[in-house]
Amino acid sequence: MNREMVGITVVSRDRKGIVATITNFVFTRGGNIENMNQNVVQGLFGMYVEASFQNLNIDSFDADLHQIATEEELDVNIYHTSSTQKNIAVLVTKERHCLDAILDAAATDGLHGKIAIVIGTQSTLQPHAEKAGIPFFVIPERDQGKAESQILALCKQYKVDLIVLARYMRILTPNLVWRYPRRIINIHPSLLPAFPGAYAYQQAFERGTKIVGVTSHYVTENLDQGPIILQESFHVDPTDTLDSIKARGQRLEAQTLTNAVKLHLNNSLEVHWRKVHIKKE
Amino acid sequence: MNREMVGITVVSRDRKGIVATITNFVFTRGGNIENMNQNVVQGLFGMYVEASFQNLNIDSFDADLHQIATEEELDVNIYHTSSTQKNIAVLVTKERHCLDAILDAAATDGLHGKIAIVIGTQSTLQPHAEKAGIPFFVIPERDQGKAESQILALCKQYKVDLIVLARYMRILTPNLVWRYPRRIINIHPSLLPAFPGAYAYQQAFERGTKIVGVTSHYVTENLDQGPIILQESFHVDPTDTLDSIKARGQRLEAQTLTNAVKLHLNNSLEVHWRKVHIKKE
Amino acid sequence: MNREMVGITVVSRDRKGIVATITNFVFTRGGNIENMNQNVVQGLFGMYVEASFQNLNIDSFDADLHQIATEEELDVNIYHTSSTQKNIAVLVTKERHCLDAILDAAATDGLHGKIAIVIGTQSTLQPHAEKAGIPFFVIPERDQGKAESQILALCKQYKVDLIVLARYMRILTPNLVWRYPRRIINIHPSLLPAFPGAYAYQQAFERGTKIVGVTSHYVTENLDQGPIILQESFHVDPTDTLDSIKARGQRLEAQTLTNAVKLHLNNSLEVHWRKVHIKKE
Amino acid sequence: MNREMVGITVVSRDRKGIVATITNFVFTRGGNIENMNQNVVQGLFGMYVEASFQNLNIDSFDADLHQIATEEELDVNIYHTSSTQKNIAVLVTKERHCLDAILDAAATDGLHGKIAIVIGTQSTLQPHAEKAGIPFFVIPERDQGKAESQILALCKQYKVDLIVLARYMRILTPNLVWRYPRRIINIHPSLLPAFPGAYAYQQAFERGTKIVGVTSHYVTENLDQGPIILQESFHVDPTDTLDSIKARGQRLEAQTLTNAVKLHLNNSLEVHWRKVHIKKE
Asked: Residue D145 burial (CB < 10 Å; 0-12/13-18/19+)?
């Protein structure tokens, strides 16, 4: 008796009745709600429902839900978990080490997924993507809302399942994060929760910590607070400078991000609340 | 077409399937889920569902849900919003000013509610309650979990609708907080979010703030983070000392807590996410 | 027996011996050290010494100290407190309300000081300064270190005693802050320590606080942490929107910043550690 | 031309003139001030001066300074750095692992110091000290100020040079901390700055971190913020529970604290601002 899991994300302006509308629909189709959360940030409402179904007619389910979405002016995405190859979008700015590691893993067939596109806030890393035969899109737009509209459009066009932030230097807004629940992986250059924010190596160096590390994690609407997938670290030597610490850290970033992405694509990760459990093969 | 609102709280050890069990029950009884949230803290699961029903047979609803709760080993409370007089439990430690103000308001018939019991971590304020003819219970138990079991038992016995923390000096655990969603009001001696914690006046004085204030708020499982109901403040004079600031603050605490309780009992408060809207009379 | 107060600031790369050099000099000239602090941020050393002297020959003191500074490669500024009219530099970005209030106060002779220059990160407010007959300099440089070099040069040229940040939207680095100890006044749109940072009104609105306010304070190298001079606040109405809160807040900002500047110029403020005492007239 | 280092700590009620008094004394005796800091916490003033001298007559210096201290009602301690064996006080509560490791190191002559006394907030670990032939004192006093008076008296009596906090569960006040600048070493069960406070393992476990660690550091008046000496860590296994994490952590605590104490006693540690440099042998 296999139940199929479906993920539904809803984003809309905040008003009453949305929860009832969506949950009623799920139940009338015989779904069990396994997990649900909602939040409002600056008047924007986001909701995620994970439901399990038996004998689901995917096409009519999707069509009917989208019909309701149109009538109710809700922005609804439906995600059916399947075992087909996953499409990946990698978001970058200018640091190359993480992108290169992921491109290498893809080239050597080490990823159970296909890198569909690379999106950069600038064109610096375009040659890297092109050399690997992957479309590169520059979205230099400074307004993050507008930039994300373009990113979402591309992700829709290329049927992206997983977004990988490879030292992408912007902060994603809830509007994008809510649409890819547990499907955005970031690498942060510290051992979270220490040193969140943009100056992690510098702050760790100033604080005089003797262990420095990196964290790969799923992205939620709370910056650097999502479930932690993997962490790696190294001891600071007396001869280390801020530059040598960054260099050592970057090697770990590339490694740790790639490994987290592999585990996700292998369906080895189970997230329960804020904790990630790595299933044995 | 009046729909009746029902609040269901569930507390249990964390396991799968609880959300589905409860939401399925609500839907099979014709309920619309208006609001839902869940959280896990240290392996303890808490869930709150607000659902609206038409033509609800309260007795059979409650009986059936409690039956399921027993079978599934869930600790379930059902709260039917009604307009009957509300029973209030006031929790205290040793400061008298807030308790006295609430007792006065009750005596002069200024509260649309009845103070059913006063519970103290010590017996200091017992005379105050007894003089007002209200049962006073001392729960000196140091272990907060055990203390809360006793508090919950008393609140159940006296059919308490609202818990008022009148300078009660312990930190409530999620196990109690989750059972009274939006039905626990606290007074904190600062203008939150500044100076959370136990030394608010002292910290404000040390920081050299020129405005000091108090905050009445609903209690959630995150300390001092619940929706703010009312805030009041005063300017610090050059001649103020820490003691004079505390004295001025305490008068405001008594006033602000009592006003917040009155607004709640008059059904004047509407909570949407983290913001409290005060409805005009 | 009147002792004259002298303030000495030293900024240099971090190395040993600086404290000894400066304090020895002060003592050989008969100075009493009343107050002293040092700090290092990212390899840059800053030190401030307040010393009192009797019968000080200002010219030879300054010349000899600058001689030592040159030999030791230290960046030294000497500030002699006097009662002559103070020169003020006002730093702005694009919001006009605070600048206008200060210009008005200066025009009506309400400031015991002269606004020597206005410096903007953009040219938006240039007409306001020019209309008042005050030189306006645009420093649009994005690199804050380079921008501050230009600011410091102008402040030196115009013999600036007090820097007023009138909704200036950059964060000053220690390199500038250390050179004007207790001589930089900022206005922050919240009741500090609540809501530090760039989105104060928005965060207060999201948090649902019922009291919103502003804080004028001396600037130190720790953002929004300096000694508080004045605070003012207002109650949030049910009908308030984020925009109406900003509008109400801005009127208070203009008022509170101007009043803080007046108190400073009148020598009415006494700072002891982190607390500001307002002396009665 | 060897200069001798002297450390002077002053604690008194906050008033003007203390800095001048002490620094003048240092200079009239030919001292160079190498380092100085002062702070006020809740009306209590603390100051530390590190000065270097040539040809210092220690006895007359100390006698004269204590004379001034008496006249000015200042609580002054003078610390002359020397190479004689250091006396150590170990402060404990009930956890045994750190105390045992330090006692072992002392027994095997692995410490360049002598454990003079062990002080416990309770008597639990008394047998451990007595078995090693070391005096054990119970100071169960709940009022931390009174407890610290007793601790300071014992440290004075036993001429203690270094205080080691071996899972001592109280928070030291500035009154004690200021008297042993860079001479109090603590072990904290997390990788600071992550998870400061009393529930580090539990919070790390709840947060789902994949790396857990410990930090040995010098104690300052800011809780868990002092210069970091050593850090060690381990990866969390999928099979780890909170208890297994604590067990693994405790072994690291014992090791890391003992190593930090050894480095300190070997004069291998150089503290510059907030960073600790480990000198090679």
From this structure: exposed
Instruction: Answer whether C23 sits within 8 Å of D33, measured CB to CB.
Output: yes
Compute φ and ψ for B202, nearest 5 degrees: -65, -45
A27 CB neighbours in chain B (<8 A) are 23-24, 27
Q: Chain A closest CA to C16's CA: distance in Å? A: 18
C-beta atoms of B19 and A33 within 8 A:
yes
**Residue environment code for C38-64, b if the CB has 16+ CB neighbours within 10 A, otherwise e:** bbbbeebbbbbbbbbbeebeeeebbee
Give D42's contacts in chain B (Cβ within 8 Å).
Answer: 202, 206
pLDDT in tens, chain D (281 residues): 578 889 999 999 988 899 999 999 999 999 999 989 899 888 899 999 999 998 888 889 999 999 999 999 999 999 887 657 799 999 999 999 999 999 999 999 778 899 999 999 999 999 999 999 999 999 999 999 999 999 999 999 999 999 999 999 999 999 999 999 999 999 999 999 999 989 999 999 999 999 999 999 999 988 889 999 999 999 999 999 999 999 999 999 999 999 999 999 999 999 988 899 998 76
Contact D67, C52 (CB under 8 A): no
> The complex's ipTM?
0.91
Q: Is C245 left (phi over 0), alpha (psi -120 to 50) or beta?
A: alpha
β-pairing verdict for B136-138 and B113-120: parallel
| Among candidate residues A9, A6, A8, the one with its CA nearest the CA of residue A176 | A9
| Residues ≥6 apart with Cβ < 8 Å to A243 | none
Count of CB pairs separated by less than 8 Å, A with D = 68
Q: Is B156 exposed, middle or buried (0-12, 13-18, 19+ CB in 10 A)?
A: exposed
Is C206 at the interface with chain A, CB within 8 A? yes
Instruction: Tell me the backbone φ, ψ of residue C245, rounded to 5 degrees.
Output: -65, -40
- Number of helices (H), then strands (E), belonging to chain B: the values are 8, 13
Minimum distance, in Å, between the CA of residue A241 and any CA atom of chain B: 36
Say how many C-beta atoms besides its own lie within 10 A of residue A248's C-beta.
18
How far A90 CA sits from the closest chain B CA (Å)? Answer: 32
Residues of B with active-site annotation: 224
List chain D residues with CB under 8 Å of C36: 19, 23, 36, 38
Task: Tell me the C-alpha to C-alpha distance, in Å, between residue A146 and each of A41, A173, A178, A179, C130.
Answer: 17, 11, 16, 16, 37
C173 Cβ under 8 Å from any chain A Cβ: no
- The whole-angstrom separation of Cα D120 and Cα D96 is 11
- Measure the CA–CA gap between B166 and B173, rounded to whole angstroms: 17
On whether any CB of chain D is under 8 Å from the CB of C40, the answer is yes
- Kindly determine whether residue B210 and residue C193, on different chains, have CB atoms separated by under 8 Å: no
